[in-house]
Amino acid sequence: MSTRTIQMTDTLYNYYRNVAYREPDIMRMLREETETMPMARMQISPEQGQFLAMLVALTGAKKILEVGTFTGYSSLWMASSLPEDGKITACDVNEEWTNVARRYWKEAGLAEKIDLQLAPAVETLDALLEDGCAGSYDMAFIDADKTNYDAYYERALLLLRKGGLIAVDNCLWGGDVADPDNEEPSTLALRALNKKIHQDERVTQHLLPLGDGVMLAHKR
Ligand code: CA
């Protein structure tokens, strides 16, 4: 026994997947369809999906921001936990991916809860701020181009109410963030953001080693 986070062997991970979450059929179908696509690795894992859905339920979030929608798996999970009057503003630039998302949102009966904004997310977030939406969101999930993560984080923090929660995906970046010789732009961006959030007095934080690492930042 150790006080550090457990190492996931394949055997343990297979066991974990059998008891860690309950993935509804519609989520499984979307995940399996996405797995046939070239950019499949951009999809979050089912354990992350269920964790996000649980965060929505636990925080009672009604208004959610998603930066990076891809084929809609994370938004489908979050929307499934939203109350009747809940809404997700989903940001993405890719029509092909989000057409898959729209199909599944509709099939799940959740399409009306998700407002897709097909534009560079910085533009969408700036427009929301200009429209007076600062302080109005309960939760944000950031999972898009890593070099813009800092821009997304700063804008999400403004859009969030006090007590709102930001979740940022890929903060362990396959381990590359811990390799000082790795100076890829995405790695540098993630390393800088991890350090910044760790020291950011505007939030309390926790980097959860779930999936590829989910940074949680709770706005003070
Ligand atoms: Ca991701």
Write a structural description.
It is a single chain. With 220 residues, the chain is α/β, with parallel strands linked by helices. The chain has a single domain, classed as Rossmann fold. It has 8 helices and 7 strands, in the order αααβαβαβαβαβαββ. It has a 7-stranded mixed β-sheet, sandwiched between helices. Helix 3 packs parallel to helix 4 and helix 6 packs parallel to helix 7. The longest helix is centred in the C-terminal third of the chain and has 15 residues. The protein starts with 9 loop residues before the first helix and ends with a strand. The mean pLDDT is 97.
Spans of 5+ residues with little confidence (pLDDT < 50)? Answer: none
CATH architecture grouping: 3-Layer(aba) Sandwich
Give the % helix.
Answer: 40-55%
Extended strand count: 7
Total number of distinct structural domains: 1
Which strand order do you get reading across the main beta sheet?
Answer: 3-2-1-4-5-7-6
Number of helices: 8
CATH topology: Rossmann fold
Which CATH C-level class is it? Alpha Beta
Mean pLDDT: 97
What is the rounded distance between the termini?
35 Å
Q: What is the structural class?
A: alpha/beta
Strand and helix layout:
Elements: H1 10-19, H2 25-35, H3 46-59, E1 63-67, H4 73-80, E2 87-92, H5 95-107, E3 114-118, H6 121-130, E4 137-142, H7 149-159, E5 160-168, H8 185-199, E6 203-208, E7 214-219
Parallel strand pairs: 1-2, 1-4, 2-3, 4-5
Antiparallel strand pairs: 5-7, 6-7
Notable traits:
Rossmann fold, binds calcium ion, 220 residues, 7-stranded mixed beta sheet, 20% strand, 8 helices, alpha/beta
